[in-house]
Every structure is written in structure tokens, then in C-alpha cells.
Design goal:
- It contains 9 helices and 12 strands.
- The strands form 2 sheets. Strands 2-1-3-5-6-4 form a 6-stranded mixed beta sheet, with helices on both faces.
- α5 links the parallel β7 and β8.
- α4 crosses α8 and α5 packs parallel to α6.
- The chain starts with 7 loop residues before the first strand and ends with a helix.
Amino acid sequence: MTASFLSTITGSFAMPAAENPTVAMVEAAYRHHGIDARYLNCEVRPEALGDAVRGARAMGWAGFNCSIPHKVAVVEHLDGLADSARIIGAVNCAVRQPDGTYLGENTDGQGFLASLRTVADPAGAHVVLLGAGGAARAIAVEVALAGAAAVTVVNRSAARGEGLVALLRERTPARADLVVWDRPYRVPEDAAIVVNSTSVGLFPDVEGRLDLELDSLRPALVVADVIPNPPRTPLLRDAEERGCTTLDGIGMLVNQGVIGIRHWTGVDVDPAVMRACLAGIFGG
């Protein structure tokens, strides 16, 4: 049998890139499953993004992730978009097709949805989304397409919040409303799922707290945070103390990796391997 010394290449384009742990968890999965592939974490300046994508094409990369600040800008360098990426208007995962073209996917919301479904089904639920940035946009679209009855967007900037609400009303079947976050927010009685998509509580500001009326966190609620570092944010600790079901951001990050690797290699990897890797990095 002739050995092959040509590995499948995947990776990530971001700026900055040094704090992105995806390389560690993806390569842990590659090793565990014996996949002859590499994941290159690349720091790419915005003005060099086109060159980076052309380089990936030239070298036959199976695909790549895009993180801040490239998720919208990369669209013009790709050959097409999957349905959810088209609605969201952003890409975090490019996938090489059999004909050599690159299709843009958005696995942010898909990763969150896979994680959420381990504890709750959003179908028919009222989902409260704290924040209206890129992660919120992806999560809102995916939970709406998964059958959420209503999505309440809570955001300090009315303009950005209104943009997300308009998108949900126009492109999904969910009812969508905006609450301008100019005072402590009280989670409504009919809400079933609360998601923090802001960066409040993210390392190094690990004690950052959201402006919430904590007594509105009822035991029946599912409270999720997209922040992976630290895994137990102040929001999740507060929610646990009040009997809520909680979901940390590591699950979302791991499931993004599972989906991306499936796109690139066709292999369904064990999420526990990647979660253990990240838990070793972040603790928890």
C-alpha cells in the first residue's frame, strides 16, 4: 500500500486569531478519529482577506472558518451561500464543493441549535435573545426556522435591534419584537428560553453582569450563554441558583466544530472529544 503524504487542509481566518481555541478542539477531533487533516489558525488583516481566500483555493483547502471581522466581507469572495447563511447575511464556514467552488455556510446558529436541543426544543417557544450582534442574528434565524413561535430581541441599540426584528419578520415565520434595553430587563412570564448573545461576562471581564431583574429567572426557564470562556458565566451561576436549566457556550462552539468537520471531511466526530479539550483549556 502506498502511503500518502498529502493531508487535507482546513483552517480559520480571523483578526485577531491568537485567542481562538477552535484549532485545539478541531485537531483533537482529527487525532481521535485518525483523520489525516490539519487546521491552520491564520491571522488575516481585512485588506488581505481576498488574498487568503484565493490562497485557500490555490492550495485546495477543504474549507475554512471565518471569524471577526470577516464574516460578512468573505461573502463576496465565495461562489454561493447556503440558505441560512443567505438569510443571516454572514458566513463563518466555507466548504469546498466537488467542482472546486466554495459555498458559504453559517454554523453559528446551527451549533447553538444543536446544543439547545440537548435540553429543550425551541418549536412553539417564546425565545428571549439578549443582544443583536452577529451571534444573535445567527441564533435568532435558526431558532425561528426551527419553529420558535416568538423571538423577543432585547438590545441597547434600537437601530440594530430593529434591523434584526425586521429580518425575522420578513424571512422567518416567527413573531418578532424589540425591547430597547435602557433599564433592568424583566424576563416575561411566557418566555421559555433566554439566550445571552452579548460579550458581557467574557474573559477577562469574568464578573461582568447583565442588567437583569434576577427574580424573573424562574425555575422553568432554560438560560443559555454563548460565552465559552469562562464556561460558567455570572448569568449561568445566577440562573442555576434560581433553579433554571442552564446551557454554556462550550456546547455551541463544539457543535460548530462537529458541523464544520462533517462539511469538510464527511466524518461525524465525537463532540465529547472536543468538549474535553476545551474544558481543559477553559476549566469546567
